[in-house]
Design brief:
seven-stranded parallel sheet; 7 strands
């Protein structure tokens, strides 16, 4: 079955750069019109929009700070004004932080839970109501992390929040299945993105060690998640819901 999203409309949060941008571009290449949310990277968001428009698809970027009161709901209201009927939601916007568990503050832990679990929950809830009101099927994709599947030292903040997101994916899938709304997740492994650039530059030996621990002997790139996202968004995945799929070069399968 060919993976096509012709006449579909999608939202990608955190779509201005990195994995979010890679997925937004891939959805557009498959035929979807794509609306992206960005926090502060306006110039990068506009570049992503231009790339999508050049493919002949419709696109727009909307700024939203999801940590502000009611921001997730207000963002979706704006999105529905632009694309009255939206079929796909990709929750990619996220926070990332590390540190020894004995040194973490309650504020840090609460912040990560808010951004990585509460915000997707609120977006899923309002988006699902939009689909139900239209009596329309839909696909929701949560971008998680392998840290939610296999914790490591200093990963408490990210691991706990992403594990929560994985469970949110399963809970939402069960409850929304009656409306033919599918909810799945993608758990990326270590990825070469703008946010990881400082680590790559500051500790190249450590980065190489991480690379060597991956069975396929390379880190991921944003494009590596694109095909899986298109699959999960398409009718080809009509029988798939409630799963979070690791896309990690084999790391969770037994990498050192």
């Amino acid at each position: 079955m060919q993976l096509q999203l012709i006449n579909k409309k999608a939202i990608v949060t955190g779509g201005s750069q990195g994995i979010g941008k890679g997925i937004a571009i891939a959805l557009a290449e498959a035929g979807a019109d794509v609306l992206i949310q960005y926090h502060s990277a306006r110039e990068k968001a506009n570049i992503t929009v231009d790339e999508i428009v050049q493919m002949g698809r419709k696109s727009i970027a909307i700024q939203a700070d999801f940590t502000e009161d009611d921001a997730p709901e207000h963002f979706l209201e704006k999105a529905f004004e632009v694309f009255s009927e939206i079929d796909i939601l990709v929750n990619c916007a996220a926070a990332y932080d590390r540190g020894p568990i004995l040194e973490l503050s309650r504020q840090q832990f609460s912040w990560m839970q808010k951004v990585n679990v509460e915000v997707p929950f609120r977006l899923i809830q309002k988006f699902a109501r939009h689909l139900i009101a239209r009596k329309s099927r839909g696909s929701i994709i949560n971008i998680s992390s392998i840290s939610g599947l296999m914790p490591s030292s200093n990963s408490c903040l990210n691991s706990c929040s992403k594990a929560g997101l994985n469970m949110l994916t399963r809970c939402a899938a069960i409850e929304l299945a009656q409306y033919q709304i599918r909810v799945n997740g993608i758990a990326p492994g270590t990825t070469e993105t703008e946010s990881n650039l400082p680590y790559m530059e500051q500790d190249p030996a450590g980065w190489q060690q991480i690379t060597d621990s991956i069975p396929l002997k390379r880190v991921g790139h944003p494009k590596d998640y694109a095909g899986l996202a298109v699959l999960l968004a398409s009718d080809a995945a009509d029988w798939i819901t409630g799963v979070t799929i690791a896309c990690d070069g084999g790391k969770t399968a037994g990498g050192n």
